[in-house]
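Hi U.,

Before I forget, here's the chain from the pilot set. I'm dumping it here mostly so it's searchable later in email.
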Amino acid sequence: IWSVVVMSSPKFKPCPFCGGLPDIRYSFNTLLIECTNKNCKIQPSTWMHVHTNNAEKLIKIWNKRKDLEEQ
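Structure:
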């Protein structure tokens, strides 16, 4: 398995489950964002759910949070 860490960016919101920092990287020729906190019980990732190699679009998807009014 080959992957390369591309960048960490202050544009990212923290992990919604643990507050950890996300990374954006390529894995299996797919751009993904995932939580880097190995102690995060959820460890969210966009790998299985988002199919785009557009970094800006992926960051917008990662940063999207459900509005408090919608809960």
